[in-house]
Amino acid sequence: MSNPVYLALDLPQLDAAKALAQKVKGHVGGVKLGLEFFCAHGHHGVHEIAHLGLPIFLDLKLHDIPNTVAGAMQAIHVLEPAIVTVHASGGRAMMEDAKAAAGEHCKVVAVTMLTSLDERDMARTGITGTPHEHVLRLAELAEASGLDGIVCSGHEVKSVHDQWKDGYFVVPGLRPAGASVGDQKRVVTPRHARDDGASVLVIGRPISRADDPAQAARDIEATL
Ligand SMILES: O=C(O)c1cc(=O)[nH]c(=O)n1[C@@H]1O[C@H](COP(=O)(O)O)[C@@H](O)[C@H]1O
């Protein structure tokens, strides 16, 4: 089985991001470039990282009217990302148009409820019920919209997997036992998420902020 870990390269400096990706290259399955990286370095930065030969997960979390999101998807074809994110709360038409506009080999996955939120945060945005219920509802909508899968926490992935057998499930909010949680609220270990059916394990700071990132990536790989 290929390594399911995608390293989140949430670094502002292009050289530092390249150096980190180079260090852990043999111990991760791909790299995730998010808003911080893309706003700072754009297409050029993505091309620079792509030279390392790892699959690229472009985490843009697109959320706008369908026409605008479809235009953005077309504008990134040339980067040939393996995975791109949109927000499920953008609705069915937006997700359908995003998928239709995506490159042939690009998986489009919908962010359901950010792993930095809990039930109280959710209630403050006017959404009632539990995170679990909300994620399952948005997963159903993403599947009906023709997307490849969703992003959710390790708390929900098992139930989502039971309901959507051939879905592609991206799980962030992962921490090896005892690691600092930081701003994440719905957290499990990488092994737990994998056992519950995660297709991709997104891991950032536990690797990028380790004294020896390659060793941290190896240690996580060994638990899977
Ligand atoms: O879409 C994501 O990747 C994502 C969704 C989510 O609900 N929670 C979440 O943490 N992420 C991303 O996953 C990464 C987690 O980083 P660490 O908390 O440092 O492991 C960051 O790049 C986040 O942007």
Automatic annotation (TrEMBL):
Keyword tags: Decarboxylase, Lyase, Pyrimidine biosynthesis
Signal peptide range in chain numbering: none
Pathway entry: Pyrimidine metabolism; UMP biosynthesis via de novo pathway; UMP from orotate: step 2/2
Enzyme's top EC category: lyase
Family to which the UniProt record says this protein belongs: Belongs to the OMP decarboxylase family. Type 1 subfamily.
Taxonomic classification: Bacteria, Pseudomonadati, Pseudomonadota, Alphaproteobacteria, Sphingomonadales
A GO molecular function held by the record: orotidine-5'-phosphate decarboxylase activity
One GO process term, biological-process aspect: 'de novo' UMP biosynthetic process
HAMAP family (alphabetical): OMPdecase_type1_B
Cellular component terms (Gene Ontology): cytosol
Quaternary structure, from the entry: Homodimer.
Xref: PANTHER family: OROTIDINE 5'-PHOSPHATE DECARBOXYLASE
Listed CDD domains: OMP_decarboxylase_like
Name of the protein in its database record: Orotidine 5'-phosphate decarboxylase
EC numbers on record: 4.1.1.23
Catalytic activity: orotidine 5'-phosphate + H(+) = UMP + CO2
The keyword Lyase belongs to this UniProt entry's keyword annotation: yes
Pfam families: OMPdecase
Orotidine 5'-phosphate decarboxylase domain sequence ranges: 4-220
Residues where substrate binds: 10, 32, 59-68, 115, 175, 184, 204-205
